Amino acid sequence: MVRKKPGKDAAETASAKVRAAGLRPTRQRVALAGILFREHDRHVTAEALHEEAAKAGVRVSLATIYNTLHQFTAAGLLNEVVVDSGRAYFDTNIGDHQHFYVEDNGELIDIPGDTIAVSNVPAPPKGMAVDRVDVVVRVKRA
Asked: Which domains does the chain carry?
């Protein structure tokens, strides 16, 4: 019987996910993918992921976190949700859905994709195509 190191399966899964997205599975990418995708769908900021990585013993700069999140987004592993000019979240749920943004605490909450209907989207400028429509509903605690 061959025994694997604890956590090795998770690292192999993260490595396979990175490779399947067409990215080279570097140490940093695999470590960050392991942190991002180990649980259910979630929303993270670069700063929050940097803190999680530090707690997990992964030494990586904030710049590398930003670069990796943008690479994962370009590769289709994440969606970026921009809530204002200075705040972006990265969403591991890449399926069709929208978001509530709780302004009191900065929390993002998923809205199922079939809940909101967007109509009358104007035709895009010549030579362009609509890639996606993002809806962020801003809420405050009552």
From this structure: 8-139 (1.10.10.10)
